[in-house]
Design goal:
Glutathione S-transferase Yfyf (Class Pi), Chain A, domain 2; 6 helices
Length: about 110
């Protein structure tokens, strides 16, 4: 079962490819991430829009932050969720949460 930490470690290896980074990134976002998210989606046991149970949990926020904030190419990472409707539903539900929107608006702007 893949975890967010596993994804991050794999991604850092792609980022470190130097000259071959463009093709590596393209493959990461269009093939590898899509395949790995499918494996992760199989582990979600929550009702529609939740990772577990029927209410927002830390798992939902972690998944949202991972997909929408972690990657250099945020659009490509979000597009990778097109093949995983459960994950996409979690991301979209958290993105509409007023407390999350408030935090994203007011949080300190940093380089990391």
């Amino acid at each position: 079962m893949p975890s967010v930490r596993d994804f991050k470690e794999m991604y850092q290896k792609v980022r470190g490819k130097g000259e071959d980074i463009v093709s590596g990134m393209n493959e990461w976002f269009t093939v590898t991430l899509v395949e790995r998210l499918s494996l992760l989606e199989n582990q979600l046991v929550g009702e529609d829009g939740f990772c577990v149970g029927n209410t927002m949990s830390l798992a939902d926020v972690v998944l949202f932050t991972f997909v929408t904030e972690f990657f250099d190419n945020k659009e490509a990472s979000y597009n990778a969720t097109l093949a995983t409707p459960k994950i996409r539903s979690v991301i979209d539900r958290v993105a509409k949460e007023e407390s999350v929107l408030g935090w994203l608006e007011s949080r300190p702007k940093t380089s990391f």
